[in-house]
Amino acid sequence: MNCEEIRDLLPAYVLGTATPHEIGVVEDHLARCGLHEEVAALTASAALIASGSKSVEPPAALKARIMAHTAGATAGVQRERGTPRRPWLRRLLAVNPIAAVLALALVAMAVWNVTLQGAESPEKFVHFYRGQDSDWLRVETVLGDPGAEVSLGGFDRLDDSQLYHLWTTRGDQVLLIGAFNVNPEGKWAGEFDFVFEEGDRIWMTSESASGTDQPTGEAVFKTRF
Amino acid sequence: MAESATTTGHIASPALAVQPNKQSARQTTGSTIAFADEMIIRRNIVARLVQRDPSALEEMYDRMARRAFGLAYRILDDGPAAEDIVQDAFAWVWDNSQKLDSERGTVDGLLLTLVHRRAVDALRARSRRDALPDSSVSSNAGQDALDLVDEVQRNLDADAINRAMDQLSPEQSEVIDLAYFGGMTHAEICEKTSLPLGTVKSRLRLALNGLRNSFGLGGSS
Ligand SMILES: [Zn+2]
Question: pTM for this one?
Answer without folding.
Answer: 0.58
